[in-house]
Design brief:
- This protein is mainly alpha-helical and about 110 residues long.
- It has one domain (about 10-105).
- The protein has three helices and no strands.
- It has helices spanning about 10-30, 35-55, 60-105.
- Helix 1 (about 10-30) runs antiparallel to helix 2 (about 35-55) and helix 1 (about 10-30) runs parallel beside helix 3.
């Protein structure tokens, strides 16, 4: 039986779809920050959000609150992970530039 009601589970499912789309399209926006495993997590996020939209009407208010807290935590951890990937890439690029500048000074 499929019973879709317009309740908080719809909002949470749409929010997860939006966050997962950002993760999925990260590969086209900033390729150096993305990893191959991001596609796997994006697929899991799509499946989770569709299940939440279709069967979320059966959740009690405390269970939807728990799902909301889990989603917020996972999105924050994912955001932090992507930010740290960018910092590592910038650090490696800066290290390469510094190494190149040091070798150029030695040649003079």
């Amino acid at each position: 039986m499929i019973n879709i009601e317009f309740t908080s589970n719809i909002f949470l499912g749409i929010f997860v779809i939006f966050a997962v789309c950002i993760l999925y399209f990260l590969r086209t926006i900033k390729y150096e920050v993305s990893r191959d495993i991001d596609i796997f997590f994006a697929t899991l996020g799509f499946a989770y959000s569709f299940i939440l939209i279709i069967h979320g009407w059966r959740l009690d208010p405390i269970l939807i609150l728990a799902q909301f807290l889990i989603v917020i935590t996972i999105i924050y951890i994912g955001w932090e992970n992507i930010r740290l990937r960018g910092i590592i890439i910038n650090y490696k690029n800066q290290k390469i530039v510094n190494k190149k500048n040091n070798t150029d000074k030695k040649d003079e």
